[in-house]
Amino acid sequence: MSSVSELYQSVILDHNRTPRNYGRLEGDARRARGYNPLCGDECTVWLKVEGDTLADVRFEGQGCAISKASASLMTMAVKGKPVAEVEALTERFHSLVTGRLTEAEQQALPARLQVFSNVAQFPVRVKCASMPWHTLKAALAGGDAPELVELK
Questions:
Q1: Second label for 116, Cα 20 to 30 Å away, from 15, 47, 96, 133?
Q2: For the whole model, what pTM was predicted?
Q3: What is the residue extent of each domain of the chain?
Q4: Domain 3-150, what fold?
Q5: Does the pLDDT at position 152 exceed 80?
Q6: Cα dihedral angle (11, 120, 22, 148), rounded to 10 degrees?
Q7: What are the pLDDT digits (tens) for 116-148?
Q8: Are 34 and 128 in contact, with CB atoms under 8 Å apart?
Q9: Which ranges constitute the DSSP H helices of the chain?
Q10: Contact present, 101 and 92 (Cβ < 8 Å)
Q11: Is the pLDDT of residue 39 over 60?
């Protein structure tokens, strides 16, 4: 197994077993629920926006290791960032997992997200990795009303 594959597997398994920022946000929080009917992955994302900053973000969900690890790493990457930066990162992550980023663009992403570059080789797994990010996007756009994101 190559070192990149080993790193990928190690990071994914670690975040699946011990997801970061797991659990609900209490109080005044936006939320959205994502669901992938093809494999049953589901995820709810809660977030608090203060001014133009994503002050806090948490998630709960169940599904495959890729889905849970993606949600965990997503929360780490976006917490405390300006909303505009979060939106741009969401688009770049989707381009990463669908194989549309150049090598230089991949290297510009946070290192912990680069482990998902191999997902593009497995089209059935793209939705597993991207569903939490689509759910985050819906929570950002949805304001106080919960949104349901169902991938098809």
A1: 47
A2: 0.91
A3: 3-150
A4: Sufe protein. Chain: A (3.90.1010)
A5: no
A6: 180
A7: 998 999 998 999 999 999 999 999 997 555 566
A8: no
A9: 3-17, 65-78, 83-97, 103-108, 111-114, 123-142
A10: yes
A11: yes
